[in-house]
Amino acid sequence: MNDFFSLLYEFFFDYDTNQDFMTALFVNKDYLWLGIIILATTCLSLLVFYKIWDPVAKQTFSFLITILINIGLIFGIAYILITNNNEITEYLVNQDLPGIESFILKTAAVTALYGAVVFIIFILIPFPFKFISKNNRHNPF
């Protein structure tokens, strides 16, 4: 699974420039954890939206708030996960290689982007979250 998730990130990064950083994430299996974060946070956000926040007065507005909270949570958790990687922390402290801060921010942003995509996919397919709601079943589409 680590291989699968690492392939998703290679589209956004130049491997020659970021080889040391990407290898540090791969060896520590952080790509797998980033994928788990995307899925778990999105499922939790949808559960809150369709079950706990039911009924919703302004459905579209509430949907947009939920997706923004989901993106923010994924970005924050991904940022913390990446900065807690021992090799990445070592690069940050020693400043051996330039661009580590931008790599961390870009990786967290890509993770948040994938989180938004997964959120929308889970909304569009008949996923069980819609069926646990009485009043929110047809929201947002």
From TrEMBL:
It comes from the Bacteria. The chain crosses the membrane at residues 31-49, 61-82, 102-127. The keyword Transmembrane helix applies. Keywords: Membrane, Transmembrane, Transmembrane helix. This is Uncharacterized protein.
